[in-house]
Amino acid sequence: MESFKEKLRLVVNKIRRAPLIDEKTLNEILRDIQRALLYADVSVDIVLKITENIKKRVREEKLPPGFSKRELLLKIVYEELINMLGGEAKYKPLIRKGRTHTILLMGIEGSGKTTTAAKLAYFYKKRGFKVGLVCADNYRPGAFSQLRQLGEQIGVEVYGEENGDSIDIAVNGINFFKKKKCDLIIIDTAGRHKDEKNLMDEMSKLISAIKPDETVLVLDATIGRQAEKQAEAFNEVAKVGSIIITKLDGAARGGGALAAVAKTGARISFIGVGEKVDELEIFDPPSFVNRLLGFGDVKAIVDRFRAYEELDKKRLYAISRGDFTLLDLLDQLMALRKMGPLRKLVELLPGGYNLPADFEKMGEENIKKWIAIMQSMTKRELLNPEIINRERMLRIARGSGTTVRDVKALLKSYKMAKSYMKKLSKQRFKKIPYYGR
Ligand SMILES: Nc1nc2c(ncn2[C@@H]2O[C@H](COP(=O)(O)OP(=O)(O)OP(=O)(O)O)[C@@H](O)[C@H]2O)c(=O)[nH]1
Ligand SMILES: [Mg+2]
After folding, report:
1. What share of the chain is helix, strand, coil (3-state, %, to 5)?
2. What is the 266 CA–ligand 2 centroid distance (Å)?
3. Nearest CA-CA partner of 368 in 337, 398, 397, 343
4. Whole-model pTM?
5. Helix (DSSP H) and strand (DSSP E) numbers for the chain
6. Do 270 and 186 sit in the same domain of this protein?
7. Nearest to residue 282, comparing CAs of 273, 267, 269, 266?
8. Would 289 be classed as within a structural domain?
């Protein structure tokens, strides 16, 4: 994954440094993205689709006031990468206390099933669940002792039998742990290949015999885009509930495996990121993409876009016409604080106003104070500031840790801004009918 990450970060830097995002620069950037994705073994059709989407969205999406085209492009790249990995939603573990949940692990040889069984057991044990491990692999000598060793390491009991039929062992193991009132039973199976008909038949028999709550396919990230074929083949014999991708640490083709799996619509629940028992993570596409692109600034840009999308445009319009109460002001200030610099308030108003100097000068400190003051007002006061007499001012000042002077100053600024905007919008609307004639 390291080089994939490096290549994507170079793209992010290029976007950030480009003097202008014009057609030529955009095409160059899209080519770099294609190269990075192809390098990670993402299939050509996915690569073309993602870059087409980016191009189309950059052309079509409106640039909100106060944002640059560069920021819009970064946000789109971020969102398209998340879509490629299956969307925003994070996997939610289905296990509940007081009911035995069974998970069956399957996959080809060496994909990491046994290690993952132990990792999962450890994951749930740490969260307070009682877990049991069953070794239903009677093909590979040493499979039982491998799991037993892992079980000892994490303090989880392991059920297995030296000889016998894998289906019988699985059934016995489940009964064994059900008696012990385990919340979760994890069944490790023998590795099998999609072309080994006997083993695949056995898998479907095993599934009918034990009817697991969840059938998990374990895939090794190093197979890249071939993950799609494997996921489909396993899905034919056993309905795959979710997929765990292992060995993402160090797998250059990991991006390809993740994209290929997401394309099948299957759910990626966890990812394995190392050999140790605690190196398992819930798969969360947004945080995964954040890490790929470099934490911090792309995420911060996207958060600002989201905050803008949350703003109430109708109310902003009303505010721009001087039609607002203190409650509007409070709500909008709170929403805007998420967006960064506060002069953005002005930039966001439809029409792009220039506010009086002292209104513009209000710094972060003042805004914090204002919010505190308004939060100490009752709803009635926020809606009818004229009722705020000296007695009320005293109460508000005390409640917000400010002074009566601060409260007065806020009320004065509010009145000034309101009448100023009313005046301005009247002038503007007088002029507007002449435009376009
Ligand atoms: N780096 C890394 N290695 C892993 C990860 N998961 C498993 N491995 C290693 O992959 C190898 C195979 O793991 P196993 O868990 O034995 O695989 P398996 O699917 O049970 O293998 P069979 O039972 O033989 O089919 C071991 O050396 C593990 O340490 C991972 O997330 N990262
Ligand atoms: Mg194994």
Report:
1. 60, 10, 30
2. 23
3. 337
4. 0.76
5. 20, 8
6. yes
7. 269
8. no
Domain assignment of residue 188, yes or no: yes
> Ligand 1 pocket, 220 CB below 6 A?
no
Ligand nearest to the CA of 118: 1
Atom of ligand 1 nearest to the CA of 107: 19
CA distance 78 to 362: 33
Q: Tell me: do 79 and 110 sit in the same domain.
A: no
Reference 26, options 65, 47, 1, 53; nearest CA is 53
Looking at ligand 1, which residue's alpha carbon is closest to its atom 10? 112
Q: Which of 21-35, 118-132, 146-160, 355-369 has the lowest mean pLDDT?
A: 355-369
Give me ligand 1 centre to Cα 109, in Å.
9
Note residues around ion ligand 2 (Cβ under 5 angstroms). Answer: 113-114
Selection from 424, 392, 430 nearest residue 411 by Cα: 392
Contact 169, 134 (CB under 8 A): yes
The answer to whether the CB of 113 is under 6 A from ligand 1 is yes
Residue 265: CATH number of its domain: 3.40.50.300
**Strand positions, DSSP E, 156-205:** 157-159, 184-189
Instruction: Tell me the two tokens of residue 312.
Output: 């109430």
Beta pairing class for 280-282 and 268-272: antiparallel
Find the helix packing angle between 326-337 and 313-320, rounded to 10°. Answer: 120
Domain count, the chain: 3
Identify the three-state secondary structure at position 216.
strand
Q: Which atom of ligand 1 is nearest to the CA of 117?
A: 15
CATH number at residue 427: 1.10.260.30
User: Is the distance from the beta carbon of residue 254 to the nearest atom of ligand 1 less than 6 Å?
Assistant: no
Give the other-Cβ count within 10 Å of 295's Cβ: 11
What tens digit of pLDDT does each residue of 67-97 get? 889 999 999 999 999 999 999 888 888 888 8
* CA nearest to 182, candidates 289, 101, 117: 101
Per the domain annotation, does 217 fall within a domain?
Answer: yes
Smallest CA separation from ligand 1 atom 7, residue: 112
What is the residue whose two structure tokens read 């619509």? 265
